[in-house]
# Entry
Amino acid sequence: MPSVPPEDLEKYSSAITLSDMEIFVFPELLYALLLANIMSPLIWKWRDDPWFAKIDKMNPRRKIDRLKQYIIDHYEFNLDLDTWGLTDKKTELARFAPFIDTETISASNALFGYEGDRHYFDLDIRRHFGLEKYDSDIIPYWKTETIEAMTAFARRKDYRTGAGECVSLSTLYAAALFIVCGIPLEDIFLMATPLHSQNFIAVNDGLLTNNRRIVTKNMWFNGTELTEKAQRALRHEQITMVFNNTGFVHCVYPEYTMDPAHYERFRKKIGDYLSTEINFEILANFLRQHSRFQKCFQIGHERHGRQCWIPAEKAYAYEHNSPYKVSDNTRGKLLDEIDCDEFYSTQLPDRICMGRIEQFFKDHPIQHYDDESMAKLGEKLDCRNAQKNEMLAELARFVHLEPEFPDIENKRSNPWRKLEITPDMNREGIIERIESMRTENRSADLAFYAWRDLSRTDWAPFLKAAFERNPVCIKAVKDLSDGSLIQILTSLPSESIYDGPRLAQPDEVWNYQTGDGLEKAVLLAVVWKKRHPDDPMELIVKPDHIELTLSERTVSFASAKGLNNRLSL
# Structure
């Protein structure tokens, strides 16, 4: 295996740790992680789970719903500052200085000063993420987990299932959509903003994966609090990068590698997803989200043969404990559930009757971009309790969103070779195909580092990441003597969370309290170097055992990794 050139060592070692910061600076890492998950045996095993029986006979939407529930049941969202430890701005900015200037990264990354649109936050960014208890220069690593590290969270105290942060969940979703649901990679677009990561799936009307959940086009416009939260990133942040199997577009870098036709298709499909015509259901959904306008409306209903009316805000309040909605054909059932003393026997003054608005929409389709039809709608929405123009402006904003996309007009095209892997290929064939493209596609090469396969990669990036970016294990054992540390590592279970010649990093070994002998030896070496920086160390790696020679002793561990190497550390 050829050595990684010195100028690329930072990038290749970042493929091991995969922090949010590293992925922003080195965008190729995002797709490398997706490919690592696609090569992993774990998601392929899902296809044998009874939950996915007969999935091949389902339509795409049912397949995706099936997958969504599986992910909700088996993985939770985790953004714990202590999981992967802390670093500081000075250290990380020094790392990235050769690749991106400080001003740019501070303006585009949440950990270095970016706070998003002020409408996004009602708290400052450090309080939002729980960082206010630390010095202002302290920031979390927030490493993105592979599928193995996500699944291994179930080993941790107080966790029942796997877990991961938003980038971990987005790449897990993307890999599972490809492997389990058979969605082509051309239709899976990975998107990142300064504070979030999600996927747009160009199937039917389109859908977003958002942490563990999915958001269909209908859901995007349903006006619920959960959907409003899911919209925050696209409504209030710039999209920093978009990726599919033809490459990426990044808001900062002057070159893009994605096929321009694919990028244009993405923009068209997500644009259609984020826009809808205005009808009665959409107006009622809008009022659900923008509750201050509900005071302009009343709803008529027949009870015991007599017509009566209820303030709209009263009816919406009853939605919280009912399966029925104001906005659809279950409205009558919702109103039947409401106590009779909430109704008035005469129409309320200065309020618009929603029944008349519903009738208006049957004959007048409304498009947000059509000034004439919007003016007609405005005549019907005249209300003394709110500003009509403000309501119309908010409604237009509700039904149409134009995200802040990375612009390619002033960028140079530097295309990669497209990653030609398809859902009908088996896992072994996919691994072979990705390996054959390592010299022609940077993400394909980095994927083997993100996959942690030390039989197919230079060991230097793995060791650089281990010694420089694993603060959790060092802090956890700081009060142990050298002898006690060795004894504890020897007593830990010897099962690796990675199969074959793939290795966990030291903090993964410590967090999950298990590791192959080679992984334990690397953890011991990392702690030893911190305690005894001048002591020479030698690591002798044999297929079935490991010897770590320290200044005054040699520590041996059994290993099942099948690797051979001899390293001075």
Notes: Residues 445 and 558 are 30 Å apart (CA to CA). The mean pLDDT is 92. DSSP finds 26 helices and 19 strands in the chain. Residues 280-399 form one domain.
